[in-house]
Structures are given as C-alpha cells and as structure tokens.
Amino acid sequence: MKPGLRSALLMIVPLVALIGVVGPCHADDPKDSKGSYGAELNESAKMSDIGLPLYPGARVQRDRSGDSPALTMGLWLPGGSFRLVIVKLATDDKLTSVADFYRNAMSHYGAVLDCSDPGSRSDADRKGHKKELSCGDDKPDPGGQLYKVGTPGDQRIFAVSQHGQEVRFHLVHLVLPLD
Fold first, then answer.
1. Where are the chain's structural domains?
2. Tens digits of per-residue pLDDT, 17-72?
3. Most buried among 109, 167, 176, 178, by the most CB within 10 A?
4. Cα–Cα–Cα angle for 49, 54, 56, nearest 5°?
5. 48, containing H or E segment
6. 89 has which bridge partners?
7. CA angle at residue 25 from 6 to 49, to 5 degrees?
C-alpha cells in the first residue's frame, strides 16, 4: 500500500468508529450544515468528487474479487470537516502516458509536486512548514510516480505503478480541516 494512502486510511479507523457511535447521519451539503454534524461512508465515488478527468480507456481496478474500486467517506462537525475520496483504476497504456495525462490535469489546481523525485520535493519537506503541501514520507512504488497538488487541507493525489502488463493508478481527493 502506498504511504500516502496508508496515512489517509489511518484516519478511517477513528471515522468508522465514530460512525458506529453517532449512527448513519447525513446532511445534504456539509457546507450548509452549520451547527450540525454528519458522516458518510460509501463504496463508490464520482470522478467529479475527485476533481480530475477519467483517463481515456481506464477501467476499475480491484485487488481481489469483491474488492471495491472506490471509497467516499466524510465527517463534518461544527468546527470543520474531513472528506476522503479514492478511485482505483487500471489501463494497458504506458505508465508514462497515464502519468503525463494526470500531471497535466492536476496542473489546473496549481504547481504539481512530484514526490517521485526526491530532488524536486517541496522546501516544506525540509523545513517542516505546515501551510505548504509536501511529500512528507509519501513515495511511489518502485518504478512508479506520485504527484500531489493543492494545499495540506485540500489536496489531490495521483499514484501510478506497473503491475505486469497492467498500469494501476489511484486518484485521491483529501479534504482536512486545516485551511
């Protein structure tokens, strides 16, 4: 599992526990739920929730039978909200073609951080700044690529790696109550 996804998934355990405690609450729009709280957990996601286009010819990717190729989860409280959207996809195209496609698509959100190349990591990685997006400990699988764009509180992540003849990639949109 990719370290960036591992970090995000570590937040899932407390969220799932909280959902079990508060029950399946849901407001139509977390931004309009002042003074209320809610939670969502779905084994599906829309590309519009990721905010990135679907790679032409991509198909859903499952690690094993019965595995969900997507996840949407969120929690909102009066003090802030958390949302995680993950989509797992695959293609038979070249890894570099998929990486170039998403690097270009992500550039619409600002400067793309290439966590695949330690030499091009953000200065925030070395100085510990919290207002600038950084790679932190996130690294791609060997031979893969890992890109991030946005802010620490609203970031999009792309990770791609080769698996035999198949190229597998994950798209993530992570919103945290930091900004």
1. 3-175
2. 444 444 444 444 555 545 678 999 999 999 999 999 999 999 999 877 778 899 99
3. 167
4. 175
5. helix 47-50
6. 60, 169
7. 50
pLDDT digits (tens, 9 = 90+) for 73-126: 999 888 788 999 999 999 999 999 999 999 999 999 999 999 997 765 544 444
> Would you say 176 and 152 are in contact if contact means Cβ atoms under 8 Å apart?
yes
Closest CA to 148 of 108, 106, 104, 92: 106
Q: What is the pLDDT of residue 80?
A: 84
pLDDT of residue 148: 96
The structure's pTM equals 0.76
DSSP 8-state code for residue 30: G
- Whether the Cβ atoms of residue 42 and residue 73 lie closer than 8 Å to each other: yes
CA atoms within 13 A on the CB side of 42: 14
**Number of Cβ within a 10 Å radius of residue 178:** 13
User: What's the CA gap between 48 and 53, in Å, rounded?
Assistant: 8
Query: 60 pairs with which residues across the strands?
Result: 89
Torsion 95-154-24-47 (CA) sign: negative
Token reading at 68: 């969900």
Helix axes 3-10, 12-22, angle to 10 degrees: 30
